[in-house]
């Protein structure tokens, strides 16, 4: 189970919204448009949409993050993507770093299709095929030492561009562009902070008293792969970025 702590997020995951500019550019939000910011997190990107003159509906599945987003001003509400409950009410939909957390991608796309007005755009960026491969492999090795199968704990869905294009098409979207690209991402602090922020489902598989040992083992294994000669950590992100529009 993944729990979002806004303070931890602000300290160790601010890069998620800081790296959001290209997605906003791709969205080209227009003043007055009713934009759905799905997976708004702590609202840092939501603020940029408000500044662009949009009327923003911000939604996140985490009550803690929604509270943090409201603290920045925009109205935000708690909901899961597959149970959105909108009906043709929004013009474009922006999703940043959300879709890889949704294990039923078709249910999410069906709900987004319902939420958008005909012709409404869906612009998103999320983890794609191969994302954090070295981190996943290291969890596989470290947890195997405790007879735990890390693959069944994997909370993420990282599709190829071909797979996701087909899903978008099958769910009633025309794809304007879709691109998979590696984006090694500098981390603001130690790798163990990233693991504690983003990889909780793996850590929750071991008793609390053993988690520090697991984090240290992960760090040792990944130091030769994910640490620069200057001592900075990065994560081996691969992104899938696309722009699509509701077909009818
Ligand atoms: C992300 O938020 O972009 C992300 C989270 C977990 C794994 C990979 C990417």
In short:
It is built from eleven helices and nine strands. The chain is α/β, with parallel strands linked by helices. The strands form two sheets. The chain has a seven-stranded mixed sheet with strand order 3-2-1-4-5-9-6, with helices on both faces. Strands 7-8 form a two-stranded antiparallel sheet.
Any overview of this molecule?
The strands form 2 sheets. This protein has a 7-stranded mixed beta sheet with strand order 3-2-1-4-5-9-6, with helices on both faces. It has a two-stranded antiparallel ribbon with strand order 7-8. The chain is α/β, with parallel strands linked by helices and 248 residues long. The longest helix has 16 residues, at 211-226. It has 11 helices and 9 strands. The two termini are 36 Å apart. The model has no long low-confidence stretch (mean pLDDT 93). It has helices at 6-12, 14-18, 21-27, 44-51, 63-71, 105-115, 133-144, 161-170, 191-198, 200-203, 211-226; strands at 34-38, 55-60, 76-78, 93-96, 121-127, 173-182, 185-186, 234-235, 238-246. The structure holds benzoic acid. Benzoic acid is lined by residues 16, 97, 100, 127, 131-132, 156, 198, 237.
């Amino acid at each position: 189970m993944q729990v979002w702590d806004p303070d931890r997020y602000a300290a160790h995951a601010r890069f998620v919204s800081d790296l959001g500019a290209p997605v906003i550019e791709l969205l080209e939000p227009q003043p007055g448009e009713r934009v759905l910011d799905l997976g708004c997190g702590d609202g840092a990107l939501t603020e940029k949409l408000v500044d662009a003159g949009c009327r923003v509906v911000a939604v996140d599945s985490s009550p803690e993050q929604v509270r943090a987003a409201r603290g920045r001003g925009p109205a935000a509400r708690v909901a899961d993507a597959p149970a959105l409950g909108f009906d043709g009410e929004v013009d474009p939909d922006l999703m940043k770093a959300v879709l890889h957390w949704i294990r039923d991608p078709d249910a999410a796309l069906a709900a987004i299709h319902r939420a958008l007005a005909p012709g409404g755009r869906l612009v998103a960026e999320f983890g794609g095929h191969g994302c954090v491969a070295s981190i996943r492999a290291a969890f596989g090795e470290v947890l195997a030492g405790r007879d735990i199968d890390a693959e069944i704990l994997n909370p993420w869905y990282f599709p190829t561009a071909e797979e996701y294009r087909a899903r978008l098409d099958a769910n009633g979207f025309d794809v304007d562009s879709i691109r998979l690209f590696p984006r090694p991402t500098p981390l603001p602090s130690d790798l163990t902070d990233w693991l504690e922020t983003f990889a909780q489902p793996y850590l929750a598989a071991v008793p609390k008293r053993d988690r520090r040992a697991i984090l240290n083992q992960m760090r040792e294994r990944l130091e030769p792969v994910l640490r620069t000669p200057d001592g900075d950590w990065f994560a081996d992100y691969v992104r899938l970025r696309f722009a699509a529009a509701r077909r009818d």
